[in-house]
Amino acid sequence: MKKNSIFWSLLTMIMVGMMSVAFVACSDDKDDPDSVIANPTSVSFSSSGGSQVVSVTSNRDWIVTNAPSWLTASKVGTSSLSLNANSNTESSSRSCTLLLTAGTATATVNVSQSGVVAPTQVTITNSSTYTLPRFRVVFLNARSESLVDQDYGTLSPGRTIHADIPTAAKEYYMATYMNSKWFFSPNYDISYTTLNLSTAEVGGWSSNSSSSRR
């Protein structure tokens, strides 16, 4: 009888001890402060866009907010944030601050993207068989107004010229004066920074007897 009493006493003590440990463990887990950490906290993209991944460490379920239209921010599993930036076709840079929230804890990720670097020159080579007297390059703004009209003299076959692109230019055209007439090329966007003028191309330019384009 005494042995049974000792056994039950020991068993009771063990059960009480286990319950105490479990209670303390649960209490400690519950009392842990909410935490969320992002690494890195700053991400940069080139103007062409692309994808990057941010590592997230948290003891709570977390969400991400504040993503602009040009950036897709997606939670991957419980420990990764995937970022996908669209290409930036503007010359100005752009940025945003993403907010990660886990319970009462927050973290931020700063995202920036550079703008397109505007070209500074147009390189034109006369690869045709034509000699182009009074060769002009005319730059236009968004309203098709002339900004710069530069005469480069005679552009003989094989000669190359470099035309500086003025601020606010959106497109340009070329002109040459032959047989008492002006001949004009089509308009080119300034993204066409290297041109090799072929015989067929120059032969297709439109003519005009006026000294200015109509």
Q: Bin the helical content.
A: 10-25%
Gyration radius, in Å: 35 Å
Strand-residue proportion? 35-45%
- Spans of at least 5 consecutive residues whose pLDDT stays below 50 are none
**What is the CA–CA distance across the termini?**
120 Å
Could you spell the SSE succession in H and E letters?
HEEEEEEEEEEEEEEEEHE
Mean pLDDT: 88
Structural class: alpha+beta
Counted by DSSP, the helix tally is 2
Largest sheet: 6 strands, antiparallel
Report the strand count: 17
Q: What gross morphology would you assign? A: rod-shaped
Word description of this protein:
By secondary structure, this protein is an alpha+beta fold. 16% of the residues lie in helices and 43% in strands. It contains two helices and 17 strands. Strands 10, 11, 13, 14, 15 and 17 form a six-stranded antiparallel beta sheet that branches. It has a four-stranded antiparallel beta sheet with strand order 1-3-6-5, with no helix packed on it. Strand 13 and strand 14 form a beta hairpin. The longest helix has 30 residues. It is rod-shaped and about 125 Å long.
